[in-house]
């Protein structure tokens, strides 16, 4: 049975929600599910903007048929070719063989790689091209590496709708509430939006900055992403978040303490530091065991907070493996402009602190490493207490510089 919602005059959401998928891109946990957003414009011509993942194809096709209500489908605009949005292209072509497909040169190349045959039906567009579907006129804006090289966004100049591809997206199923102002976004959605951006798009901050500059010249009234709620209010709030994330500026003054502990001694040090920070007035602290926390959550908080504490035991004369993996992910996603403190532990050859410091110095950008460092020999002792106090004081001081 069909299920769709009106976005604004002539425009309808015809996507679907997925509560069965456990891992987005087979990597990132999505306990609240995810939405696949697709939109239909009913003008003199009918236009489909993107499709959905194969898992949601049946619901999508029922929604499409219901919204068209007997009309043919004239055009299909493909902003992004990743399979969670493009997998149903072939099903649309089978059911609506006369449809013309509008997309970029690189997107058509990828369509061929995925086995979608559109040779006689394609209309290739590039940056600055425009198209009219009747009273609605659209402009195409290339958005390379947000987060695939073929991506574009489409702006309807008639009603101010930006079809934003994977920009402004979020994990989480919509479950009937289409608009960001129909939920408490800051309380219930911001963490998923941050985790989505930082892990999916985070590496490509300069490209997002370029897109934000282009979007700044548009009279946007609706942002229609391919995942998550449609934005129609409080644009400044959302732009500010994306501007900070994509420029790698901390979202908040606060401390992420990420610890890697074998038998609980390094964990005890991390917990003690968190307590001392809170006693001294810095209560915006997130404490994570890197062995039990999926790295997507660690990355999200690393983007969120101004300060990071890395506490690791030494393992085989190296960094504990899960902590090393976290460092590698931070590097891969281009995290920078953070102040980092180090706690190291080792029973006979304490190397983890030096190795983490070297990694931050040599492999990452604009990372400030505090000179204050706590070194433990197997477990905390009375001699470490003054060092822990000094470290907490220095972390708080660094936030106010």
Could you walk me through the main structural features you see in this protein, from its secondary elements to its overall organization?
- The protein has 401 residues and is α/β, with parallel strands linked by helices.
- The chain contains 13 helices and 22 strands.
- Helices cover 35% and strands 25% of the residues.
- A 7-stranded mixed β-sheet has the order 1-2-7-8-9-10-11. Strands 17, 18, 19, 20, 21 and 22 form a 6-stranded mixed β-sheet that branches. It has a 5-stranded mixed β-sheet with strand order 12-13-14-15-16, with no helix packed on it.
- The radius of gyration is 24 Å and the shape is elongated.
Low-confidence stretches: none
Strand-residue proportion:
15-25%
Question: What spatial form do the alpha-carbon principal axes imply?
Answer: elongated
For the residues shown, what is the average pLDDT?
96
Helix content: 25-40%
Distance between the termini: 58 Å
Q: What structural category arises from helix and sheet content? A: alpha/beta
Strand order, sheet with most strands: 1-2-7-8-9-10-11
How is the biggest beta sheet arranged? Answer: 7 strands, mixed
Distinct helical segment count: 13
Gyration radius, rounded: 24 Å
How many E-type strands?
22
